[in-house]
Structure to design on (631 residues):
DNA sequence: CCCGTAACTTAGAACTGGTATG
DNA sequence: CATACCAGTTCTAAGTTACGGG
């Protein structure tokens, strides 16, 4: 239904190397990979080969079994019930504020000023961000200053009336020195910190849910600081206040050991709700939304849900043709509402747009999704660059990431869009008779469990599968096959518009590479000159020695040409990935079983595709998918 | 239907730490 | 040995969806 265009570097073999840079977990001989792919076989072999002392034998399997609990082989809970037993230690609070040493000064209007602890703390938040572009933004400064003043004593308030007169540079220097000092710490000191973190993780990083120890994702409470919204956020710079035990709701089993609040404090509430998955929650002060502490993606509760998500997408695969025919019919409907719904759904399906909920104006950055598109976000071109009926999209989506695309559409869609835009202002809704709730209700009627986001999952996964089929060359070696995998992944990332800001060091590293290329070019020119003169020489002398010299010079030229090509391909590859992020699609949209099956089919070690964390998250897929798995 | 709220997934940026490089 | 670099990890913002009450 949709086409993803990719430009590939010309030479495969050389860019392979680039792909492998930094993948440090390669094991010589690569046998170990197959241990993981063929777990059961490997285990059998192991127990035959190795003679383990009796005591060890008894202990180890038990431990391993606990670590490798295969929840996916167990029966699921009835709908709505998330757990039967839940015990945890509660959250870890942000460390208390440590006042600055006396010699670190803050200046107002050129004069030293000693701040109260509360005001000082908030000032340090700003000082720590001084190098960031944020602090130059008008809205950020205004919001910060307003909230900062709330923390000041009456005296401070009356003195400090202008942010521009505040000098945080000394404070900023102090923090930079601190960071530097941390880097310079001795091995022992660093180890001490590491040990302490490990202890914290061990104590607070896990919970017990239904007889199994599970890893918690975010057991640390977000520390206070200045709110950093994405894009043009009206609340940027506001003070994110410190969360206290009195803000915290604990959720756990009635019969579990209830985590005690820190001495001298109380929890806001302790509840025992097994219809939800969270362990701890609190209300954040910027948007007034609720934040949660939940389990790690490797947990049963997250894994099951993830698996279910892909199963829903696979059900969509079975009826997607029917749904597509349906919405194409609906383009002709006499009901405006139905037409809008059908065109919106077409965009969601074809372009993998997000649903697009309405947002409260002034509360968040101005971003849109499909249903919230405005007239100003599209341009209609009856003809553009030799193509008919082109729609030009230009809007900011989630995280204020720009979506820009020129898409040829069916005539009917085009005509409908013209109709929807008639007599509207640029800031009016394109789909004025539609919202996500209407759309999702309709989708629910088409297929149980179908919502707008299922299309994104479905199209991402099916694209990966298709692209893998298309791009994998059976004769390629492993690195070349992995390159194909990454390209398939890239096709999905482009479809889903997963972008990233070019890394800060990108230009520099690109320049380094370019200078390497330039040097190589010069080297090549030299080698060619030498070859030329050797040829001339050989013509005159006509002896064996000069002939040989010509041959070796020829080879040298070839070798340098190849090296140059490699470098250029590497540059292309890096350039192509400059603004594309592969990880989001890999983590959230691609059915891991497709990747696992592909690995098994071609004998690719799973470690080449998934790092340790990803293997933990996708353990279910790695265990259950065979090479013939079809999404 | 509208609206607000709750719960959960998805997202890019910032940070970290281990390793390659000079 | 210091430094640069980058993959992996952490952080938390920003979405989607369901639901209940008027």
């Amino acid at each position: 239904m949709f086409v993803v265009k990719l430009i590939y570097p010309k030479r495969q073999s050389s860019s392979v190397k680039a792909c492998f840079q930094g993948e440090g977990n390669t094991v010589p001989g690569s046998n170990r990979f197959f241990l993981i792919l063929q777990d059961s076989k490997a285990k059998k072999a192991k127990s035959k080969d190795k003679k383990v002392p009796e005591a060890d034998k008894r202990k180890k399997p038990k431990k391993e079994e606990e670590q490798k609990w295969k929840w996916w082989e167990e029966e699921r809970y009835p709908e709505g019930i998330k757990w039967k037993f839940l015990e945890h230690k509660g959250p870890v609070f942000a460390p208390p504020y440590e006042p600055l040493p006396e010699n670190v000064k803050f200046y107002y209007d050129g004069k030293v000023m000693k701040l109260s602890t509360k005001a000082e703390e908030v000032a340090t938040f700003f000082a720590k961000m001084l190098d960031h572009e944020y602090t130059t933004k008008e809205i950020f400064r205004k919001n910060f200053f307003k909230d900062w003043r709330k923390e000041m004593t009456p005296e401070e308030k009356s003195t400090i009336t202008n942010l521009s007169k505040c000098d945080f540079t000394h404070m900023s220097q102090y923090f930079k020195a601190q960071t530097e000092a941390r880097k310079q710490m001795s091995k022992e000191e660093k180890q001490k910190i590491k040990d302490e973190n490990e202890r914290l993780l061990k104590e607070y990083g896990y919970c017990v849910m239904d007889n199994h120890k599970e890893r918690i994702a975010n057991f640390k409470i977000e520390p206070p600081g200045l709110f950093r919204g994405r894009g043009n956020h009206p609340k940027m710079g506001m003070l994110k206040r410190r969360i206290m035990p009195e803000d915290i709701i604990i959720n756990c089993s009635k019969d579990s050991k209830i985590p005690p609040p820190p001495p001298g404090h109380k929890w806001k509430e302790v509840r025992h709700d097994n219809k939800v998955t969270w362990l701890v929650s609190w209300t954040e002060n910027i948007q007034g939304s609720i934040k949660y502490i939940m389990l790690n993606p490797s947990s049963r509760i997250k894994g099951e849900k993830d698996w279910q998500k892909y199963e829903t997408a696979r059900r969509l695969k079975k009826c997607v043709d029917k749904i597509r025919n349906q919405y194409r019919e609906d383009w002709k409907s006499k009901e405006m509402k139905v037409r809008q719904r059908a065109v919106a759904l077409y965009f969601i399906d074809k372009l993998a747009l997000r649903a697009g909920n309405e947002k409260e104006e002034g509360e968040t950055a101005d971003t849109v999704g499909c249903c919230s598109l405005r007239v100003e976000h599209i341009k209609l071109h009856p003809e553009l660059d030799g193509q008919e009926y082109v729609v030009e999209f230009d809007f900011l989506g989630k995280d204020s990431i720009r979506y820009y695309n020129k898409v040829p559409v069916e005539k009917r869609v085009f005509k409908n869009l013209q109709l929807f835009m008639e007599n509207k202002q640029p800031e009016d809704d394109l789909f004025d008779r539609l919202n996500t709730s209407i759309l999702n209700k309709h989708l629910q009627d088409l297929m149980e469990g179908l919502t707008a986001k299922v299309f994104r999952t479905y199209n991402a996964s099916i694209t990966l599968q298709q692209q893998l089929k298309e791009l994998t060359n059976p004769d390629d070696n492993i690195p070349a096959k992995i390159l194909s995998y990454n390209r398939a992944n890239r096709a999905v990332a482009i479809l889903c518009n997963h972008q990233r800001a070019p890394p800060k060091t990108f230009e520099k590293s690109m320049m380094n590479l370019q200078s390497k290329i330039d040097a190589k070019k010069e080297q090549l020119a030299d080698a060619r000159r030498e070859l030329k003169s050797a040829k001339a020489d050989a013509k005159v002398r006509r002896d064996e020695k000069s002939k040989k010299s010509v041959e070796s010079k020829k080879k040298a030229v070839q070798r340098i040409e190849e090296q140059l090509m490699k470098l250029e391909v590497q540059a292309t590859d890096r350039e192509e990935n400059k603004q594309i992020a592969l990880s989001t699609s890999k983590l959230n949209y691609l059915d891991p079983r497709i990747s696992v099956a592909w690995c098994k089919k071609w004998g690719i070690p799973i470690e080449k595709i998934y790092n340790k964390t990803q293997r933990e998250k996708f353990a279910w897929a790695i265990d259950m998918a065979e090479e013939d798995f079809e999404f």
Q: What stands out?
A: The CA atoms of residues 546 and 616 of chain A lie 62 Å apart. Residues 21-22, 24, 228, 230, 276-278, 281, 289-290, 292, 294, 302, 305-306, 309, 354, 398-399, 401, 437, 453, 498-501, 581, 583-584, 587-589 of chain A lie near DNA strand B (CB under 10 Å from a C1'). Residues 506-541 of chain A form the longest helix (36 residues). DSSP finds 21 helices and 15 strands in chain A.
